[in-house]
Amino acid sequence: NWVEKEWNELEKKWSKWNSQEISIFIGHTLKCKKSKINQYNEIIKKNKMDGMSLSKMSKNDWMDIFCFETFLQTCDIYDSFNKIYTKQAVPKEYLCPLSNLIMNDPVFALNGITYDRSSIMNQYQSIPNYFSLFIDGKLRLFPDHGLRQNIQNFSKNSK
Questions:
Q1: pTM score, whole prediction
Q2: Please, what are the domains in the chain?
Q3: pLDDT in tens, the chain (159 residues)
Q4: Beta-sheet pairing, 141-143 with 106-109
């Protein structure tokens, strides 16, 4: 219970994470040994990284900087950080209801809900009554240009 409480406090201040807190986050996510966490801490210090710099990194950046053993580990870290980032900083309407991540290409579906295009294309079967999203056997989606512009502006101003 104490660990969970500490983790919740650490999540809340992600933008101000120092090298030790970033290495704890990585270690917690990957369930690493202390020696590996110390290695990550040295990499972070060397690259002068903080929590805000993490929000600007791509998966490839994470892989290049930390040399994780597998790309799956990179994806785990990237996705875990983005969940923390989005939970603390991003307006709900910018998040896809399927992936819970910031939408890159928001689209309206026939059910009146906006999704990220890639999420709905890959996960439409998880939506109740998903057959109502189709016309003549085709998934009908309509770009939400206004929301896309708002998300792009938010992303630029957040970095």
A1: 0.52
A2: 2-89 (1.10.150), 93-158 (3.30.40.10)
A3: 555 666 667 777 777 788 888 998 898 889 988 899 999 999 999 999 888 788 778 899 999 999 998 999 999 999 888 878 766 667 889 889 998 788 999 999 999 999 999 999 999 999 988 999 999 999 999 999 999 999 888 877 665
A4: antiparallel
